[in-house]
UniProtKB/TrEMBL annotation, chain A:
The lineage of its organism: unclassified sequences, metagenomes, ecological metagenomes. One of its GO terms (cellular component) is cell division site. One of its GO terms (biological process) is regulation of cell shape. Keywords: Cell shape, Membrane, Transmembrane, Transmembrane helix. This is Unannotated protein. The chain crosses the membrane at residues 21-44, 64-84, 91-112, 204-224, 294-314, 326-347, 359-377. It is a multi-pass membrane protein. PROSITE patterns: FTSW_RODA_SPOVE (PS00428). One of its GO terms (molecular function) is lipid-linked peptidoglycan transporter activity. NCBIfam families: rodA_shape (TIGR02210). It is found in: Membrane. Its main location: membrane. It comes from freshwater metagenome. It holds the Pfam family FTSW_RODA_SPOVE.
UniProtKB/TrEMBL annotation, chain B:
Residues 284-650 form the Penicillin-binding protein transpeptidase domain. This is Unannotated protein. Residues 677-696 are annotated as: Disordered. Coiled coil: none annotated. It is found in: Cell membrane; Membrane. GO terms for molecular function: penicillin binding; peptidoglycan L,D-transpeptidase activity; serine-type D-Ala-D-Ala carboxypeptidase activity. Keywords: Cell inner membrane, Cell membrane, Cell shape, Cell wall biogenesis/degradation, Hydrolase, Membrane, Peptidoglycan synthesis, Protease, Transmembrane, Transmembrane helix. Residues 52-239 form the Penicillin-binding protein dimerisation domain. It comes from freshwater metagenome. One of its GO terms (cellular component) is plasma membrane. Its main location: membrane. It is a single-pass membrane protein.
Amino acid sequence: MSLLSSRVSYRRASRKSIFTGFDPILTISVGLLLLFGTVLVYAATRDWYAANGLDPQYYLKRHVINILIGVVLAWGTTVIDYRLLRAYTPIVWGIGVLGLIAVLIPGIGSTVNGAQAWIGLPGGFQIQPAELAKISIIVGMSMLLSERSHDKDEPTHRDVIQALLVAAIPVIFILLQPDMGTVFIISVAVVTIIGASGAPLRWVVGLIIVAILGSFTAVKVGVINDYQVKRLQAFVDPNSDSQGSGYQLRQARITVGSGGFIGTGLFNGPQTNGRFVPEQQTDFIFTVAGEETGFLGCGFLLILYLTVLMRAFGIARRSQDPYGRLVCTGVIAWFAFQAFENIGMTLGLMPMTGVPLPFISYGGSSMFANMIGFGLLQNVHARQRG
Amino acid sequence: MNQRARLSLVVIQILIFSLLFALFGRLFYLQVAAAPKYKDAALSIQSRDVITPATRGMIVDAYGVPFAMNRVGIAITVDRTKIDKLPEKGAVVLRNLSDLLNIPYADVYQKTRLCGELPAGEKAGCWTGSRFQPIPVTKEADPNLALQIVERSDRFPGINASPIALRNYPEKAGVNASHVLGYVGPLTEEDLSGANGRSYFRSESIGKAGLELQYDEYLRGTPGIKTVIVDRKEAVTNTAQNTKSVPGAHIVTSLDVRLQAAVEKALGEAVRGAKSRGNYADGGAAVVMEVKTGRILAIASYPTYDPNAFEVGLSFEEAKNLYSEKAGVPALNRPIQGLFAPASTFKAVSVVAAANAGYNLQGTYDCPSEVEVGNRKFQNFDSAALGRMSLKKAVAVSCDTIWYRIAFDEWLRDGGLKPKSSKNDYFFNAAKGFQVGVKTGIDLPSESSGRLADREWRTRWYAQNKDFYCNYKTRAPKNQQTPFLVQLAYENCLDGDKIRAGDAVNFSIGQGDTVITPVKLAQMYSAIANGGTLWKASVAKAIVKTDGTVIKKIEPEKLGEIPATKSTIKFLQSALREVVVSGTAAGVFSGLPVAVSGKTGTAQVFGKNPNGSAKSDTSWFASFAPSDSPRFAVVMMVSQGGFGASTSGVGVRKIYQELFGTNGSRVNPDQAIYFNGQPPTSIPKISPNTKYKGEK
């Protein structure tokens, strides 16, 4: 019996060493999102690049490379014991902050769409430190809020303040770029983590109030750039800036709506192929899904996100310790609000900010960060109870 | 995990799923509920229509001789998709073009701008079509200049010369016919707005007046549409549809080129003749109608304008002139829009009224120099006392006083100023029976209905004008404060809502507030001639496709019968014959070898001309011929033309001479307009080369 049982446990262990307890449904859903995204990136760029005498597979190739790197990162994140990861957390956080400082230094950082958010690398690649900062904030806050130096079950005010500082330092640098979309998503994730940590409820309420007042004064005082004010105005009144943001939002809505129930078919969208929506392989990629795959395709996409999030909630619930639960909650809030902000902006429910659609949009930094986040979920899952 | 942490996870879960649910809802709205709207919007963003106007159908006369056709011009066009890619958007090329064609650069620039590109208020002359169509700078280029452009494509990139169809009125046999034909012109923003219930494609030419407007939807055809799919840079990526244009159908009219030309000539001479006799004579109209169908054989208005001027483009001065009073308002289509008191031509209605009231048409009546009506005396024409005479003779010599007496008696019988409830209103009812105040239904735009000044009209009029007449001294301008007008205003204020004795007697001789159009009078006299039927007036006979198939035949339409017995009509016909034999028109028609029946009319007009002279009388002559079996009704009216006989009567005689082909005192059937005396009934073959009889 003992021999038998030890053989069984050996088999289990050996299987774990290859798949390391990957949640199959979560993995398949993310895999389908990546596949969907790859097709959309190709559909968004093929005809236009071909028509302008460029390599029609330029974006496709790069996107696939990004995914492959992302898969490696996800696998790496999964297999590391997160208790070890916790030990590295201060280093991850520190590198994230350094990257955010570097991006603000003239000559190193470059400006795209009004935000100085990119660091150019050799070979035409660029990285966006803010994307990676999301991970360091989630991991850092989760650590501070789950490790108790006292015997109380819930985080004290002191814990919360420390956790907030961990988030506030990178956020300040991101505000300086300024990249309001990322700040928004991080803020939501921060509030969610604090809420899930069991910290006093007034922190959650207070932070929401501060966030609302903060964004209001930011517009008033002028911390926010002119183009961001315009984007907000365009959201309130789509005709206010008919050539700029208003144009983009109107075009995006028309493109999605014109797809109808079944869409025009992949690579057949005249709005997409005529490139009437700008940034359609990155921030506005949902318009391609909307036009070419219609309500069916978009609905499928939303169901994939729903599945990913439901599995993530399950993982959070079954987590062995508060740290794993908080990391999962942070990743859930990040994915959910980033997807909501991106699709909501495309559909005219949210103001325009430049955030990519998780697992779908073209863009290395975002893809890497998403895949590390996915790896974190798998990591917690692999070590869950029972 | 403690209870609170578990609860907070549930709260977060609910929050996030409700966000996803919101996205689902919004997605459903955009892609399912509102999808058609967004599909349309997307289509208008992606697609551009290139319109090739269809060849416009011809307008021909009853024998197929063209009134309106198409001519080839050379258009110099600018291709904006090419020009815009040049440095400074091709300003240098446009300047070269401006120099070559001798058109100011500002005009070249303006003509090649899309209307949407220009600020409001500076759109005059802009291009109503799309960027993807060749935009014409001129449609009538000198072939040599066109050749230079084609040969020197290096100097003129994006500029082309190509043949283009222009509307052309060939003016065969010297015909003008501008009022009945109308003209074509470019679409205006108002046309495009769909205000007139028709939809157009940008850059089409459309009918603006006359038959060109009336039958525009047939004449215009369907333009060819090429829909191209463009990208954000407006580069063409695809062609979505490409339909060929379908040429417009032809309109066959009942007009005749030669008769129309003759009528125009006779009318012009009548107006000029009246002028030479010292009348103001500011315009006129003439109508020839087939009495048994209501078809218009010729219809002319004077003064006229050049229908070909519109395609070339009117100068500002020319456009202003069309509506200037000094030039006689050439734009006014007098036969269907001119409203004048019918004067003695209206006695035909009075005869019917008298017969219906029981007066003996064969009896004799006294024609004194004046009749006392109430406390006022109404004079005969020229105050002549002509003694007792038959009613027939009274019509012939146009005695007024007989009618004053009958109308006054009938007015009294109906209760005078206190009308009975059971009124006979023989005169009003006779006029109603002739459909006075109702349109003839002619197939030309903007016909006036005229006015029947009966009791109902009087009541309406009083309600509108009471205030003015009761405060005349403060409301009316100084120069209209003459004692006569002040007295008139006083009377109008007092009992202007009632038909007074004066109104009743004036009505009987076609004076006063009742006004009609010349085409209406032609319709009324046609009814007398054909035995009593009022026919709808019509110009078009058929609409024929380019391959010769008839799309639509326009058949004569009965509108009603005049309220007269056979014997009354017979009497009326003989009385109208007597007018020409021994009455007021005898001199004018003496020696004409065709028996004509008719009635002169000389209507008094109040008011002054722009030059200060008192207005002259309206000259009318309404007639039909041949008297024994009438086929044609001819009416002429010269506004401020003086006597009916000497101005319009002479004009009508000339029309009959041409119509029947008279040569001195003999009829020469070879010279007649119609081969066998009848207008053709069959639909002719249509060709731009059809010649009229005698054309070289």
